[in-house]
Specification:
The protein has helices at residues 20-33, 89-96, 120-134, 143-151, and strands spanning 10-11, 40-44, 52-58, 61-65, 72-76, 80-83, 138-140, 203-209, 229-232, 249-251, 260-261, 264-266. By secondary structure, the chain is α+β, with helices and mostly antiparallel strands. One of its GO terms (molecular function) is formylglycine-generating oxidase activity.
């Protein structure tokens, strides 16, 4: 692919961020560049080919990570396929042969609910096994990728604005969720990228070790070593604050909880 055909980065750094029309145009331009029929696609996860995962193409871009005076421009140079939803119980069981979820619901389709009660180690093994099954490269999102995916062009506290009053339109979270556990994936409004449940429902493991942000602003990733891993997005059992796009959270890699899940990335072959 010739560099002169490469679309520009999605620039989300203007005071108002990038609007939904601009975001979609960038997704479509990058899908065309990658010779994909659409910026939405299903990929096989298991060796039988019967279980798939819906993914959304995220264009490379630059955005403000964090909020207030601490916000810094981050540049991500590579396109990514990102899971449209949190990984479901059905998808996890098809790959790993087991469903560890605490919130199994008798008579309810496991394809509809996120897998939870998975440690970071479990999540990493799941991505590795899916890669081995398919020959593709699946992994967890890096923290910088996660915030970019969550914001989807926005610079507000949540991806639908700054008000807690409207957070319930996009998120299952404490005081807005009258069930005592996660809800069906995709039950709320998506962000401009077309991703669901980036706020609330379940925390999502990221690949990074947790540490203070360093000075790297292009394709940053966490330190090589650490004792706690990043998870992002808030959950059904946490407050509105935890659902903020910039809110950082962490847990030990072995911790499991009915409020922790994962979302996959598939790395395009494009270079």
């Amino acid at each position: 692919m010739a560099d002169d055909r490469k679309p520009p980065l999605l620039d989300c750094t203007s005071p108002g961020g990038a609007d939904a029309r601009t975001v979609l145009a960038s997704q479509k331009a990058w899908a065309k560049f990658l010779i994909e029929p659409s910026h939405e696609k299903s990929f096989t996860l298991d060796m039988t080919g019967k279980v798939t995962i819906d993914m959304i193409l995220l264009p490379p871009g630059k955005y403000y990570r964090g909020d207030g005076d601490a916000a810094r421009i981050i540049t991500l140079k590579n396109p990514l396929w990102v899971g449209k939803y949190e990984v479901t119980q059905q998808q996890y069981e098809a790959v790993m042969g087991t469903n560890p979820s605490y919130f199994k619901r008798a008579g309810v389709d496991a394809a509809l609910y996120p897998v939870e009660t998975v440690s970071h180690d479990d999540a990493t093994r799941f991505a590795t096994r899916a890669s081995q099954n398919t020959g593709a490269e699946f992994r967890l999102l890096r923290e910088a990728e996660w915030e970019y995916a969550c914001r989807a062009g926005t610079r507000t506290k949540f991806y639908n604005g700054d008000s807690n009053d409207t957070l319930g339109e996009i998120a299952h979270y404490y005081k807005k969720n009258d069930s005592k556990g996660p809800e069906k994936v995709g039950g709320k409004k998506p962000n401009a990228f077309g991703l669901y449940d980036m706020a609330g429902n379940c925390w999502e493991w990221c690949s990074d070790w947790y540490a203070d942000y360093d000075a790297i602003t292009t394709d940053p990733r966490g330190p090589a070593f650490g004792s706690i891993r990043v998870n992002r997005g808030g959950s059904w059992g946490h407050s509105a604050q935890c659902c903020g796009a910039a809110y950082r959270h962490n847990d030990t890699p072995t911790r499991t909880s009915g409020g922790i899940s994962l979302r996959l990335v598939r790395v395009p072959m494009w270079k």
